[in-house]
Write a structure and sequence with these properties.
Blueprint lengths: L10 H5 L1 H20 L3 E12 L6 E12 L5 E7 L10 H14 L4 E6 L18 E6 L8 E5 L7 E4 L8 E4 H12 L1 H4 L12 H10 L3
Parallel strand pairs: 3-4
Antiparallel strand pairs: 1-2, 2-3, 4-5, 5-6, 7-8
Helix pairs in contact: 2-4
Length: 217
């Protein structure tokens, strides 16, 4: 059964985010490799930290993608899908991510950042963001501090965004909607998500009514 929404499914955030994050990272890699070989290699990489938000410290591992120039293994582009911990205000996860983000922005690498979470604290930007539920940022090394901002709401499909490479090489286009649809179908979210539960974080009344109207009875 297809997803009941035109783009992101807001029920994933509160029920299956870790699973979705892992599947989406893998799917994006699978999409990119045929379009980047043999000049570039795509690797799933990992960072680890200890989160102290509860009485028992938690060891956390987060994955992200790195596009390398194959001949030199130089880092060309880093692709991040934000996690719940990255957006939790004052958390170790947020501090770790902001440190990593600043390091990338000070380097010669491009950064592509996907914020597919409505909840949590939006990460800092130079200019105010438009009103939207979801964002994608394409920060080209040679255009900084400017960045391309893609913003959309729950009622819209996910955009197609460019993945920048070395100067002289054309961008590779990443169709986020197709990626989301594949992940949704392969994960079986149509039956494994509990659509009887309230959406977290909650919507205002008008959007909540729209969501309810789209769900199977």
């Amino acid at each position: 059964m297809p997803a009941p929404f035109p783009g992101m499914d807001p029920f994933i955030e509160g029920q299956a985010w870790a699973d979705f994050h892992a599947r989406l990272i893998t799917d994006i890699s699978d999409i990119l490799v045929p379009n980047l070989r043999p000049r570039y290699a795509v690797r799933v990489e990992e960072r680890a930290y200890i989160e102290h938000q509860s009485s028992i410290p938690e060891h956390v591992r987060e994955t992200f993608l790195v596009v390398h120039e194959h001949a030199t293994m130089e880092v060309i582009t880093v692709i991040e899908v934000l996690s719940l911990g990255n957006k939790r205000a004052g958390s170790d996860g947020q501090r770790e991510y902001l440190t990593k983000r600043e390091s990338i922005l000070q380097s010669a690498a491009h950064l592509v950042e996907l914020d597919l979470l409505r909840g949590g604290q939006r990460l800092p930007t130079i200019e105010p963001l438009p009103v939207a539920d979801y964002f994608a940022f394409v920060c080209r090394a040679y255009d900084r501090p400017e960045a391309q901002v893609y913003a959309w709401t729950l009622r819209q499909s996910l955009p197609t965004i460019p993945i920048p490479l070395n100067r002289g090489d054309p961008d590779v286009l990443l169709d986020l909607q197709n990626g989301f649809t594949r992940v949704y179908d392969r994960a079986g979210y149509d039956y494994s998500l509990d659509y009887r539960q309230p959406v977290q974080p909650a919507f205002a009344a008008r959007e909540a009514e729209w969501i309810a109207a789209r769900l199977p009875s």
